[in-house]
Structures
1.
Amino acid sequence: MAVTLDDKLVVAISSRALFDFEEENALFESGDPAAYMKLQLERLDVPARPGIAYSLIKKLLAFNDDKMQRVEVVILSRNDPVSGMRVFRSGVANEIKLVRGVFTQGRSPFKYLRPLGAKLFLSANADDVREALAAGFPAARVLTESMLAGTNYPHEVRIAFDGDAVLFSDEAEQVFQARGLDAFQQHELSKALQPLREGPFKPFLAALHLLQQAGSTTPMRVRTALVTARSAPAHERAIRTLMSWNIRVDEAMFLGGLAKGEFLREFEPDFFFDDQTGHVDHAARHVPSGHVAAGITNTKH
């Protein structure tokens, strides 16, 4: 029987999102890829430090046990295969079980998301993320300047999502951008009983929901939060949309435009996803954060 990943939550991640390769990447960005490869080879036995998405990945993999492999993490990297050896060795040193990887030596790797059946793609490369989103995959650019995740919840993978253009479509955001807050509130109130269309991260939220519902012989659990600039009365449509999907979130924060960072600091997520650069840049001062380059706020010129 052929090996398949169809029954697993597959996360594809770049080496820079998982490990701290910022010093090495600066050399690559300077236009000297040969020097970069040489440095990686020289450091083959020097494990890279954990990167911004390390806590998220380590906790997701902790849902696996000897009887059931529920989560698969695959390295999907622009690195060359030689540098890939250091990535796998860093995984061993940091107690991350990595068995699969694709290394494309400078070319965009996003096309390999489809055969992997990935439910999430995390990368520090903005172009790769945009291409993945355009192809229909949940994807986010990891802000490598983010704060690392806290350690207060070792048995919970904690993930926070923005709503519009992330979990939901940007239909309502388009109204807000075109006609302002009052029109947005009235639009959402009039359509409170009509579920929003799904956004790019609905498949990942659904996969997390299934992971939680499946149960586990490990102590790991999932805790999710909706963290949105919406406020009453626009909150109702967001809640009803989740209900129509038969998916629940554990916490919901309707902040009415307040800065999200301090609230996220208290929630202590392993990762936060938002489509607006202002929100995600502020959040990154407090928690691991990723930019979802979707919706009207990312297409305006």
2.
Amino acid sequence: MIRRSLRSGLVAAFAVVAVFPVAAVASAGPAPQQAHALNSTPPQISVPAWQPAPAPSTLPAKPKAPKCHHTKGRAARHHRQVRHIRHIRHIRHIIRNHTWGHVVTHRLPLNVRSGPGTGYRVVGSRAVGSDVAVTCKVRGSNVRGNHRWYRLAHHRGWVSARYVHNLGTVRWC
């Protein structure tokens, strides 16, 4: 019985040392702070042969992940410039390929509808005196004697020609 207790105790002690080797080695010698205080060299901790040596601190640092090119620096300026150039091209396209009209309602804003007629739902409005880009015209429902409706640029809706004074010739859709 004693032999079995000693054998299981020895196995348990070996398992503790195998699982916690640094704690076992560090507890074998003087405390690191005390050893460092006694002499000027830092303490040397011996590492068992079966345990890999600690990595030296002189290894090159892990390369950092590249920064997102949309957030900072020259790339961000580049993207702003590209957006600005696209915006300018978009405006030039509207000016070149569309006819401009001037909203001439009295006091109330002009309703923009989803189709060329008063039966279609209202999807927006334009203020009195604002300019609108007109793509083409169609025949729609009658608004005070005028059957023409203008389609706004970029499929934004339809407005009655009765309340838009166009500044050029509008083609038929």
3.
Amino acid sequence: MEQEHESTDELDGLPVSPEVIGWGVASLVLTIIFLTVNTSAMVLGASFMLKLLAGLVGLITGWIGALLGNTIRKFAQPDAIYTNGGALHLIWLKVFWLIGPQIIGLIVGIGLGCSLVLR
């Protein structure tokens, strides 16, 4: 008898979901942007090693914030959306519930992590 595969998904062998990896990459990119574009005295006065440590802490806290935001999104996302704002408002709400809480958690986590180290 032949064994049937229940799923034909190529990512079944991965121990981590692509969503977790994606938010980790987003955290890395935003942490680099936060530390290179920021012109505050706190960042400009820091040494290279301190900025590197802040980047590492910001990466981890941003990633945790995005995953926490995803958990909150899964819990609080409404089943149905009723609007009187038209199609654009409906699109805005759908996009918010797709990535909004994760982005908020990502930005808060990176900002908090970097500022705690650079303080």
4.
Amino acid sequence: MRVSPRGSGPRRVTSAACAAVLLAGGAVACGEGSGGDSAQRGPGEETPRAAVAKAATNSQDITSLRYRITGTVPRTGRLEAEASMSTEPPVMSMRLTRAGHGDNGRLDVRFVGEVMYAGGSAVDSGKLDGKSWFSARPAVWGRGSVDNNSYRVLPSQLEGNPVVQSRILTASKDVRKIGTETVDGTRTTHYRGTVTRGGMSAARDAAANKAARERQIESLDQFIALRVDDTLTMDLWIDDAGGTRQFRMRGDTRATQGGADGKPLEFIDGDPLDMTVTFLGVNQPVTVETPPSEDTADIAALADKAQSAGD
């Protein structure tokens, strides 16, 4: 697994620490199935692997998406989120609610022009000089395991592009049909399979053409970003038109510790991941507005202020 530091210097690391503490509850001060394809299909019915591959190909046409996330994410616990994203231009808006945090469980996050804005009751406004939002840059969402950067505000599993994440099942060698189910009023076919990093690498190397290889490379990078410990169980719900309507990802994860003050970086057992993503609207207009500048604090300025106060 690739390990790369997020950031290019002390200022960005300090800003990340500052972003983390601005969320309520922070304690650190700023400045620190079985059966093959043939056994599951009737005459004229496409195989499970073919159906999953078709859905992955169709997803290339998605340039904007509204979606819902529910489940349990490592280090965050149970959560619900609704989000909108667009690739042209690249923007994202998410409202996330963490279970068990009462009135301090809501977080609003927006990415516009490589700037992240965060607000909501989960942000400690007392550290924002009376403002409701803070901004951080350069911020990146929806790319890969190394490029993403949300300053520790979002769990890494929520930094990924759900359109790309939905393609991960194409690397499964045991994908199978579970049955026909309804998702948000739409008839779908439910498929399930397991995926490993080795399997995804093999699928990348066996890709039939450049486009398929690029899709597998993107999916592998998203798989790495999930920090799954080897095996991911994935469910995919596909509608009659061959489009993805929902997917679920489950697996044990790995976390890291060390990497600072001369301590070696090492992997340790993390919390389980169980996350369901439902597509609510595809290729509909998405507008993400930046918060009012007069109500937004710059995280780098806050970090510099805290550093000066400590000198």
